[in-house]
Structure formats: structure tokens, C-alpha cells
Amino acid sequence: MVGKNCFAIASDRRLGVQLQTIATDFQRVFKIHDKLYIGLSGLATDAQTLYQRLVFRHKLYQLREERDMKPETFASLVSAMLYERRFGPYFCQPVIAGLGENDEPFICTMDCIGAKELAKDFVVSGTSSESLYGACESMYKPNMEPEELFETVSQALMASVDRDCLAGWGGHVFIVTPTEVQERVVKGRMD
Amino acid sequence: MSRRGDWVYENNGGTCVAIAGADYCVVAADTRLSVGYSILTRDHSKICDLADKCVLASSGFQGDIKALHKNLAARELLYQHQHNKRMSCPAMAQLLSNTLYYKRFFPYYAFNVLGGLDSEGKGCVFTYDAVGSYERTGYSAQGTGSTLIMPVLDNQLKSPSPLLLPARDAVTPLSESEAVDLVKDVFASATERDIYTGDKLEIVVINKAGTTREYIELRKD
């Protein structure tokens, strides 16, 4: 979700196989560099592999270009990597958030074969995506400060995952501003 | 849109919401009727006044819904003639459940929310699945936009847990106008993201004084 010169990216913490919960502290939001984060929902093994491949490509980019990748460029990279596997896809829906030129927030989401969808307000993915659309649409306001953005994102996330049996066990929220990153674990219904 | 020759249902879309208050009940539904990706009409009411303190909103297959409403209205009239009074909301709730389960093996494709005042004058909302399983709650949403709306209602109208003792009321402490504003907000959000919800919103408020109706414009795309 986009705020005033900042963004928030959040995920739940459950890892499960249908009805069985395997882990309650699973990390789904990964850092690419200080101002670029990617969240990957869907198949956990594909999320981890994709993250490792993206970090590899970004490190090469850093060596060649001697700078960090811009979020728009990174989004195109992710889209291309997913489409390479058009007929045997990674079963992941990424959510990308970063601060671009002049610390302008950038967010986008993709389907599992790389169809990019830019948004100005918020993007969602995962099993609770419909609930998240409803909650975010109701709670979002433009130009929220980091503190208010944290509240909004946490409330929307918790309300939505509480209606989904496959998501929950708390939330992991990152608030990224040009100067700092705040990472917080939100306590929610543990079921 | 099914290619099988024997698929007899279709989903006409739409969303219904009800919220119970201390001495009122708000029942709302959009007025769009769709089939597939087309709109059949922007002006179709999903709400049926069954008794003076009891209102039913249903989304799903409108053919089955029309039949269901007709069935219930007829049964209510019979009750009036036999008992010389109108059916109370909890009584209608049980009747609806039984009517739906009667067709357990060829169900009414209807997702219902019944709202009204109980015999003490407190707001009550009953929520159903397609075959009659029901529960009295403080608020509910059914239909294509229900997954978008329920989390927001949970957040704003959080019910106390049913495991608490002594048992607490599920009805919201909000005032009537605040509840109506909340309904307008959630429908505005659902209209943005659900293609089957939109056009107009019909809001029915039931309280001691009677029943009032209000129509609000929603996005038409």
C-alpha cells in the first residue's frame, strides 16, 4: 500500500499444506535492496527459489551497473523471468513495492506468468485476495503518513486473514520510508 | 455459463448486507441483475418485505429467489389468517430454514440474509447458506461481494466472542445513521472491485416506527 513518500508491504505468517499448519513464522516478504521489497504468495518452494534467483540477478546488476535496480526495472525483470516459464510456471503471485526516482513509491502485482498490473493505491495477492480487496478499498486513504499507514495496513490484513482458514497466525509488516525501514510483527488470531 | 445440457442454475450476481442494532435493523442490497458478463437490468430489487418487522434480502439465482419469496409470502399470509397476527422475525427465520432444507437435494440457489426486529424490539439478523443452515448474528453479508465486505464489517462491528460468559449481545452499539453510513461505505468499496455489484443501492431500515426505504446511486461500470 502506498503512503506519503513511503510504502507498506505486509504478509501473514502461516505456512500450511491444505489443512495442516507447518510453520507459524514463515517469511513471505523479502528485501532486494534497502528501498525494494518483494512479497511472494503461493507455492512456498517456488517463492523461495524465485527469491534466490532474483537476488542473484540483482547482485549481478549491482556489479555491472554499480547501483541498485529501480523498482520499475525490477518489476520488468520479475515479469520476464516468470514468462520464461510460460508453459511450466512458478506457482507464485508476486507483489513488488519500492521507492523509485525521487523516493516516489512504486507498487505492482503480477499473476503467475508475469502479467504486470501497476496501481496507485494498493495491490494484493494470495488466498485472501478478495477479502483484502474489500478491506483495503474501504480503509485506504491517499497520502497517509507512515504511522497511519502502518495502522491501516495492519487492520486490513488482520481483518482479511481472519476470514480465511489458510492464512493467519499473525502478520509481518514493513514500513519503508526514504530514511528507514520499520519491521513489525502484528499479533492476531492464532488459528 | 455451463455447456452441460443439464445445468439448471445461473448466478445473477449481487450483494446483500444486514446489520442489527439495539432497536433497529438495516437491510441493504444492490439492484443490478447480471448474467455472465452482461447486465440485464440496473433496477431489480433483491429485497422482499415478508412481515411488518421482517425483511428478506437474497442474492443468487433470481428465478429460484422469486419462487422462494413467493412461497414465504404465501406461508406468512396463511399464518396471519390462522393466528390473527403477523409472523415474528425469529419464526420467519425458522420457516425459511425449513423451506430451504425441504429442497436439500435440488436446492434453491439463493443466499439469504433475513433482518428485522424480534419480539422484544431488538434488531436481529439471520444468515443462511443455500440449504438452510442458519445462525442469528449481529451482521452479515451474502452474495458475490460478501468476501469483500465481511472483513470490513468484522473490523467495524466486532462481535464479542460467543465463548464469553455471561453471554453478550451481538447487536452493534452504533446508532441507526452510523450503521446506514457504514453500509453505504462498504457497498461503495465492493462496487469498485466486484463486477456484479453496482448501479443502485436499496437500503431498508426497520425500527419501532416502521420501515423506511432509501436509494443511493452506485458506480454503473
TrEMBL record, chain A:
Iron-sulfur is among the record's keywords: no
Keyword annotations of the record: Cytoplasm, Nucleus, Proteasome
Family matches, as CDD domains: proteasome_beta_type_3
UniProt cross-references to Pfam families, sorted A to Z: Proteasome
Compartmental location: Nucleus
GO BP field: proteasome-mediated ubiquitin-dependent protein catabolic process
GO cellular component: cytoplasm; nucleus; proteasome core complex, beta-subunit complex
InterPro entries according to UniProt: Ntn_hydrolases_N, Proteasome_beta_3, Proteasome_sua/b, Proteasome_suB-type
UniProt keyword annotation of Transferase present: no
Chief localisation class: nucleus
Physiological role: Non-catalytic component of the proteasome, a multicatalytic proteinase complex which is characterized by its ability to cleave peptides with Arg, Phe, Tyr, Leu, and Glu adjacent to the leaving group at neutral or slightly basic pH. The proteasome has an ATP-dependent proteolytic activity.
PANTHER family on file: METALLOPROTEASE TLDD, PROTEASOME SUBUNIT BETA TYPE-3
Record's subunit section: The 26S proteasome consists of a 20S proteasome core and two 19S regulatory subunits. The 20S proteasome core is composed of 28 subunits that are arranged in four stacked rings, resulting in a barrel-shaped structure. The two end rings are each formed by seven alpha subunits, and the two central rings are each formed by seven beta subunits. The catalytic chamber with the active sites is on the inside of the barrel.
Name used for this protein in its record: Proteasome subunit beta
Species per Swiss-Prot/TrEMBL record: Digitaria exilis
Automatic annotation (TrEMBL), chain B:
Pfam family, one: Proteasome
Recorded superkingdom: Eukaryota
Main subcellular localisation: cytoplasm
GO terms classed as biological process: proteolysis involved in protein catabolic process
Keywords, sorted A to Z: Cytoplasm, Nucleus, Proteasome
Subcellular localization, as worded in the UniProt entry: Cytoplasm; Nucleus
A Gene Ontology cellular-component term: nucleus
Transmembrane spans: none
Family named by the database record: Belongs to the peptidase T1B family.
Role summary: Component of the proteasome, a multicatalytic proteinase complex which is characterized by its ability to cleave peptides with Arg, Phe, Tyr, Leu, and Glu adjacent to the leaving group at neutral or slightly basic pH. The proteasome has an ATP-dependent proteolytic activity. Non-catalytic component of the proteasome, a multicatalytic proteinase complex which is characterized by its ability to cleave peptides with Arg, Phe, Tyr, Leu, and Glu adjacent to the leaving group at neutral or slightly basic pH. The proteasome has an ATP-dependent proteolytic activity.
Quaternary structure and interacting proteins, as annotated: Component of the proteasome complex. The 26S proteasome consists of a 20S proteasome core and two 19S regulatory subunits. The 20S proteasome core is composed of 28 subunits that are arranged in four stacked rings, resulting in a barrel-shaped structure. The two end rings are each formed by seven alpha subunits, and the two central rings are each formed by seven beta subunits. The catalytic chamber with the active sites is on the inside of the barrel.
Name assigned to this protein: Proteasome subunit beta
Organism: Digitaria exilis
